[in-house]
Amino acid sequence: MIERQENKIQPRKNRGPIIGLVIFITIYIAIVFVSKFVGKQEGREAAIVEIQKESIADNAPTGFMGAKWLMPISQVEALFPDAYRFDKDNLKLDTIVFDRPAFVDFKFKNNSLLMIIITFKGEKNKKTYRLTHDLVMKEYGVFPEATSTSKYILISKKRIGRIAIRHQLYKIGEMSIEQVMLYRTKSSKQK
């Protein structure tokens, strides 16, 4: 029998079961975390494949220049090492598109590619719009006739399944801006 005495070492209580429980809980949490992460990655990959199938079935763009809808920013960065992060949800590439110098903005939400905006550099007017529009239609099929509105000098847009495509020319102050936008919509229903 051990008596309590001052300045004497007391025997330790058996802590084996407590340490074992802590180790078990730590391993369990690690397994749950890893499985959720792996499941999320597998879910994203499955969603990308499903969306590609859907786009192909609708004869719609599956993305642009090799970047696919819902890809995470890291995969798009790997495709375009010369691109730079404009902000946390925007990757910008300086390149040639539809035979013209342009900036291509890959826009992400929740780390998934949802929008691509091509903004042309250099001259931008009705003539350049019409020449580029012929190339856009060659790539994406016939569009409605371009119209003028109070906001746009020229605009033509169409939907293919869940993909919307707009070719627009407008002014901000004295600066003309010409863009082609491709983006995923929430549904394939026309509005």
Briefly summarize what is shown:
Helix content is 34%, strand content 32%.
What does this molecule look like?
- The chain has 191 residues and is of the alpha+beta class.
- The protein has a domain of 124 residues.
- It has three helices and nine strands; from the N terminus they run αββαββββαβββ.
- It has a seven-stranded antiparallel sheet, covered by helices on one side.
- A hairpin with a 2-residue loop joins strand 5 and strand 6.
- The model has no long low-confidence stretch (mean pLDDT 81).
What is the total tally of β strands? 9
Q: Determine the N-to-C terminus distance.
A: 86 Å
What is the gyration radius calculated from CA atoms?
A: 28 Å
| Uncertain residue ranges | none
**Residue-averaged pLDDT, rounded?**
81
- The shape is elongated
Largest sheet: 7 strands, antiparallel
- Helix fraction, binned, reads 25-40%
Could you list some keywords that capture this structure?
191 residues; alpha+beta; two-stranded antiparallel sheet; 9 strands
Task: Produce the secondary structure layout.
Elements: H1 16-58, E1 63-64, E2 67-68, H2 73-79, E3 84-87, E4 90-97, E5 100-109, E6 112-120, H3 126-140, E7 154-160, E8 163-172, E9 175-184
Antiparallel strand pairs: 1-2, 3-4, 4-5, 5-6, 6-9, 7-8, 8-9
